[in-house]
Predict the structure.
Amino acid sequence: MPHSGRHFLQIPGPTNTPLPVLAAIARPTIDHRGPEFQALAQSILADIGSVFGAAGPVVIYPASGTGAWEAALVNTLSPGDRVLMFETGWFATLWDRLARKLGLEPEFLEGDWRGGVEADRLEARLRADAGHEIRAVAVVHNETSTGVTSDIAAVRAAIDAANHPALLLVDTISSLGSVEFQHDEWGVDVTVAGSQKGLMLPPGLSFNAVSEKARAAAKSARLPRAFWEWEEILAANENGFFPYTPATNMLQGLRVALDMLAREGMDAVFARHKRAAAATRAAVAHWGLETQCRVDAEHSPSLTAVRLPEGHSADALRAEILERSNMSLGNGLGKLADKVFRIGHLGDFNDIAVTGVIAGVEAGLAARDIPHKPGGVEAALRSLAGNG
Amino acid sequence: MPHSGRHFLQIPGPTNTPLPVLAAIARPTIDHRGPEFQALAQSILADIGSVFGAAGPVVIYPASGTGAWEAALVNTLSPGDRVLMFETGWFATLWDRLARKLGLEPEFLEGDWRGGVEADRLEARLRADAGHEIRAVAVVHNETSTGVTSDIAAVRAAIDAANHPALLLVDTISSLGSVEFQHDEWGVDVTVAGSQKGLMLPPGLSFNAVSEKARAAAKSARLPRAFWEWEEILAANENGFFPYTPATNMLQGLRVALDMLAREGMDAVFARHKRAAAATRAAVAHWGLETQCRVDAEHSPSLTAVRLPEGHSADALRAEILERSNMSLGNGLGKLADKVFRIGHLGDFNDIAVTGVIAGVEAGLAARDIPHKPGGVEAALRSLAGNG
Amino acid sequence: MPHSGRHFLQIPGPTNTPLPVLAAIARPTIDHRGPEFQALAQSILADIGSVFGAAGPVVIYPASGTGAWEAALVNTLSPGDRVLMFETGWFATLWDRLARKLGLEPEFLEGDWRGGVEADRLEARLRADAGHEIRAVAVVHNETSTGVTSDIAAVRAAIDAANHPALLLVDTISSLGSVEFQHDEWGVDVTVAGSQKGLMLPPGLSFNAVSEKARAAAKSARLPRAFWEWEEILAANENGFFPYTPATNMLQGLRVALDMLAREGMDAVFARHKRAAAATRAAVAHWGLETQCRVDAEHSPSLTAVRLPEGHSADALRAEILERSNMSLGNGLGKLADKVFRIGHLGDFNDIAVTGVIAGVEAGLAARDIPHKPGGVEAALRSLAGNG
Amino acid sequence: MPHSGRHFLQIPGPTNTPLPVLAAIARPTIDHRGPEFQALAQSILADIGSVFGAAGPVVIYPASGTGAWEAALVNTLSPGDRVLMFETGWFATLWDRLARKLGLEPEFLEGDWRGGVEADRLEARLRADAGHEIRAVAVVHNETSTGVTSDIAAVRAAIDAANHPALLLVDTISSLGSVEFQHDEWGVDVTVAGSQKGLMLPPGLSFNAVSEKARAAAKSARLPRAFWEWEEILAANENGFFPYTPATNMLQGLRVALDMLAREGMDAVFARHKRAAAATRAAVAHWGLETQCRVDAEHSPSLTAVRLPEGHSADALRAEILERSNMSLGNGLGKLADKVFRIGHLGDFNDIAVTGVIAGVEAGLAARDIPHKPGGVEAALRSLAGNG
């Protein structure tokens, strides 16, 4: 069935890329060893840290986000190293698996996928690790499978309270540029991010913001690494270049995206996402449905995962909405498959779009006879009006 | 203030151009005398008539819509000719003025800008014109200033009932490709249209669909004409070319737009616009506001003009909505300035967008303290659900 | 046959549109009655005059170039008015025909299509017109059919020498933005131009730069006009708007094109075109072929028309080159059909492109067994090197 | 200095991306877990093998080419494994270094950077390896630093002659889609490729075509791997998906690029590159300069590295050409720094562009007073004419 009007890409990333960003990506590729590229790269490298709240370097990879997970580990750790992780959901689980594959020995604190990292449990475990065998704590800031944001400052405080030297590695793939994050202030050692969420680019770039402590750790880390090696990249970056071919056109787009974020201001960006999230939750609550996140303080500003009543298929609902309203929603992942659907409200997004998204979901609920109280849009509108 | 998310261009044209159409327009210009252009033009000339319901020729001008008004007149009429027109609103008024400037003598049947052409009054006037001094009846199908659609078949019937030989010239600038129109079936002699509304292109092309009778009239019509001359264009069109430089890139886009309309099917296109219009009016009625159109059968499927209560400024409301919601609405024109605002719901548009638009308007009404009953979005949603 | 590499559009217009201009045209259409458009239009209206060498107003039409010919005449003249024109080639002939169609009485001084306007003959005719029946002199600055540029300052001087009040109307469609032109300094009353040549846009905009004298003449001019009416447009322009829907997206592109011209500087632009033209003629001379222009001082900087030896088809050569080298050249027009081909070397063009074009032409000459001395590219290169 | 005309990106990759490919990349990102993406991925996965001459699977990474080097090694080898490599130039050297970093023990047969892989030396070494300690032979098909293409069929024959079980890994980063390559026929086990050369895309995708033997080896290979792991990707590919976020927009472009290659036909593509290379070498020879490649049968069809006479700076020449002619050429790498410059003649490229490139280089040689015999363009043209 042909659809009129634009597609609403409301998965929790990749997000709707602004047209000026797409236009910049579509400019002809330039010589990645010439002066025009050099100026582009230098300006990006000067500005990118502000999105992370990092004064230090940010390594940019011509690779999608999963690669940056790998990079954070192989640059800082050695075979058999213990890593303390927390099961916030599917993406924490995948990072744990990836660590195992790389020859690390992660310890995965069990969670129920409905809340964030429990800092007190981390602290207890670290206190118990008197021999400091745990080399790193690796957690997900914003768990994309559940819509739960963890308190990273609290995680830092827990490590400090335990007086533990472990590195703090944080995945901000679905939060960076949407949810407040402070790499330096929160004492993060490696921040992992990707281009296709709050940065409003297509997938294809990923990032490691690195602390001095992380760079120092890299000197003795013995996991084999080449493509992901920080130091070679940072050395080349000194002059505005990269040691191997960068994703030139994506960088052209990144320049424009950074300008857009700067123009709006990071605080305004964060506030806008919170507004959209609150309005979405107001609709969900009005419908009488449950969010996957059940901790009030931990609702994600960038996405909302919604549970369906027993006996209803979230995937069938998503298919209905795609067909009927030309809108893509995120599916349930791992053990949440077919049980939840996820609404992305991040990136290049505004109030009117929020309303349209809620309306599209409600039309789908009605069409699939999923019990709900009509009026979600009005609830969302009231929320938006009250959060002006 | 920087805006996040895309702009909602909800003026009643130009409309939101689909990205594939913009991409086609952005392809490099081709040689307008070469074989690639020839194939492009031939395919367009073969297909364009289906949008008008016309088996005969459609003249394509590299000019915006006002030019096609002029073209319809200068090709068919002679200095001093009488033309019968009907005051449906601002655009009918402008066409009347244009006719006067060209040296014609239009007779403008007075209207109150709240309804369409009154066929019985036309018929009475034509019957009174025993000497057949009136050479043409020129009416606006969809009055963009008021949101009123006139019954063109009834106009035809009136002319026939009066047994009058006048040509029938119809402006479909804001209806073609959105509101049902049948050039042949309704016995229209010249249909005037533009690219920037239902055809979903930027402004820059305009059209005259012409009947045999109109071409015959052109032979004796003595208004001076050159750029607008039909016959030279139609002769060159025989081989897929134009007598002077056409708007090549716009034609590249038109090809894509015609494909999109054909894929959806004109009946589905018309139904989609009616759905959106009904939902919009449901919201307006719920708010307790009045539409400018006050004849039930004549509400336009492509736009709705909304009257504000005495003492409230429609322009201030529009400015508020532009600032707050990044949405452009149409202003009141002529004597409706600042008294009405106009919502375009035409072109590349879908249910979700309708909801967003209504939400944006309602937020503006609230912000400007314009008396209204909240809940317009739900009313619109109920309308959409009932018109599935 | 599929072609690799980009197409070389070397007709003498439309020209190769720079990618940033195409990208600007492909941005979404904006509200032509909103503040963003207003700012865009005001900046264009402030800058466009510099390309014409005009301090006064430039009227911008949403129409291709032929329309601006018509506009120049209908705004300044009355039915039956005499206009003195000069037969420089096909486009002068077309303008003459257009004037006749509009009800004027042009007097067409015969030319052989191999040189420019002969100012002395104009002067003689004007001196003979003691009663000042001639109301306008209308000439083509750069005759696109022959590659001949006329000396407009000399035309002005001739009118002045004859002490004649006729208006001076000049077509600069294929010279503006490529060949030096000075509307004010040369005392031109109406300059006619289009978007698709030196301004590096697709076809779809055209221009009239108008003098005070021309505006004064418009007050008493009685040719019917509406779409082309200057004063209504200029009045709306005062506030950055247009009286009817402008070609919004083309204006978005024009803004970028004007910036590109300003960055290069008009003098550098003119010098670049002269360089390319000299190199092209060096190749033509080396081949032993003849240019259509036979007056040394009058060779066009923007295109070169090349005559083929008797018995050879220019159109077959062009077809060969299109097939073989993916390059479009201009055809012979009117009585030059199949006898000449035209090389456009205007717009977004550089030295390397010149060489490629000459190479493509020479490969075609060889393939079609057209007698020529090989080595045209080297001749062009020597010319470029000598004009560094 | 502002440049007119398009930039000539004549580095040996990234290459000039065709506009339709850029347009496809600039389409909005789609849901990488939805049906539209699935259809896209399935069609690409069905077609991509034909470019490699591979009936088996091709793994597509959302990463640039260096990553695919790493992937080929980590999927097939274990820590401490011996790999036989051949020093064809800078990229062979980098691959050797990368292997070392990953914990392998490459044996690097010395070369002088002026010829290709010497199959007889490989064979001798493999024969001497009676214990089959060498687990893989890893060679560069087309050495981008020197413009030398190695005979991969001969390498295969050498391995077979030595009756050695080593895997054959081949880097085709600057040859795939430009220079004939036959993964299956030549018995290659892993072919490494990138998007930004013959595939005519920007950098950001890379590839491993894998043989059955390579997949079998992967089962016991013990280098840690996660992001680069073949089997997880191939398993997800079965249904048209990827295990982690793919570079969606690049895949949109890849679809268009594959269509362009198929339309031209791989044989025609290879022939076109050979033509351009022969013409380029004809010019170099005419100038009296030397190519870095000194083996006649091994000149690369995709790039030519040119040596400058002692005492002249290749980088200064390149800077001159960039400034003067808006053309980027490749620099000398490693020990060839400042001694050679490299002309890329690959990707979306045609005869006219060849000529322009040669002309631009010759103008630079003259400007920098580098001894050369003028007339390179004519020599190139004669070559092209003779290779029609």
